[in-house]
Amino acid sequence: MKAAGRATPSAGELWSSSGIGLASSHTAVAFGAALMMSKLHPRYRHMLLALAAGCGWQRVASGAHYLSDVAAAAIIAWL
Predict the structure, then answer these.
(1) Which tens digit of pLDDT belongs to each residue from 62-79?
(2) Rounded to two decimals, what is the model's pTM?
(3) Whole-Å CA distances, 33 to 13, 18, 26, 53
(4) What is the DSSP string of 30-79?
């Protein structure tokens, strides 16, 4: 059973960590880094957040996570 009671879209491989679900660690790291860097370089805030959003979109597009997993990761990074 996964954290949210559901498997990720690509779950099913026996020795893979791809079925770990909520929340996307790739997206959390991307948003965390973007938010930290935007504090240091406020001029590039929009570009950094767009890159982090692109990371989240890629996780959904590749079938590794649901959109809710990515949204939860962005919120966790913001906290």
Answers:
(1) 988 899 999 999 999 999
(2) 0.73
(3) 30, 22, 11, 12
(4) HHHHHHHHHHH-GGGHHHHHHHHHHHHHHHHHTTSS-HHHHHHHHHHHH-
Write phi, then psi, for 11 (nearest 5 degrees): -70, 155
- In angstroms, the CA 9 to CA 59 distance is 11
pLDDT in tens, 4-62: 566 655 555 555 555 566 788 999 999 999 999 999 999 999 999 999 999 999 999 99
Q: Which amino acid is at 11?
A: A
Structure tokens at 57: 């979109």
Location of structure tokens 């962005």: 74
